[in-house]
Amino acid sequence: MTFNEILDMLYGTLRMTGVYNFQWNIVIMWCVGLMFIYLAIAKKYEPLLLLPIGFGIFIVNFPLVPLMGHSHGHAQLLQVFYHYGLEWEVIPCIIFLGLGAMTDFGPLIANPKTLLIGAGAQLGVFITFTGTVLVGFTLKEAASVSIIGGADGPTTIYLTQHLAPQLLGPNALAAYSYMAMVPLIQPPIIRLLTNARERKIHMRQLRPVSRLEKILFPLLASGIIALLVPAVIPLMGMFMLGNLMKESGVVGRLTESAQGSLMNIVTIFLGISVGATMHADKFLSWKPLFIFSLGLIDFGVCTMGGILTVKIMNIFLKEKINPIIGAAGVSAVPMAARVSQMVGMKYDKTNHLLMHAVGPNLAGVIGSAAAAGMFIAMFD
Known about the structure:
- Helices cover 72% and strands 1% of the residues.
- It is mostly helical.
- It has one domain.
- Helix 12 (182-193) crosses helix 19 (286-316).
- The radius of gyration is 23 Å and the shape is elongated.
- The model has no long low-confidence stretch (mean pLDDT 91).
């Protein structure tokens, strides 16, 4: 082997390294990924999601890493997770199955008026839809972006995959980011829209809900949703199945698996697959950055919508509702309900709002899914 051949071989080897192919824009994405990892570890903001998302963002933003895309006709590792989990819409539905198995619809059944709060909290979805169309997004893109305000990650993924799969990464990242930051975003909005007297409103203890009511609810809800918004029955059907499994009391092993091991496994695949879509070449453009910024406004308006809905309802109700629980009308379960409890106790330590806030919180899940189904019916 000649000296020139040795040099060519060494040069060819160098060209296959990340150092040779390094681009400075990937440093920005390293910082984004590490920020998410920091929030998960140091601040404990939704660590089950933000940690794998952050690592996914970090690891795919190295040159030539064989993780996303195809090589020699075969899908690479994270491409497999993304294709079968997100493109085929399997992971969001399985997550809803697990959420349903963890959910107690008792507070919503005991106080069905809270369904209106969940509907009112979708205000930001429609305002954001209008705004994104005006700035140049297509109707399908605008619909997928607007659902971020509901703070429902699986529904955001499901709708985006239907209408604008090219925006899946930034949409999912924004949705889960603002889910994680509910304790930071919502309290100032609650203080802005309520006064001291309203924050101290005590609500009557909820009535007991029978086992029969809890068993019938997922069946009735599934039927109504299938009739009105059939496009989201893959999500909501799995949600109600998980709840029926829990409330029936006869499939404990299945319920335990849905709540635990199955939920944990798909959460890992979801987080790293979402993070892996956030390559610098795709993320560092005006649309993804605008989406991430707009998500904060969208979420804030949805929170306002829930609070204002309660204040309007109180005009007509003899027994007043504490407007703090309106903030729980977004579908960040159960974080938004916990924030309502935390804020309420700050002003009156004897005012326990958690169970009252769970109703609007669950109504928000149904409301955001209904909005997604409406968009799919209109634009898909």
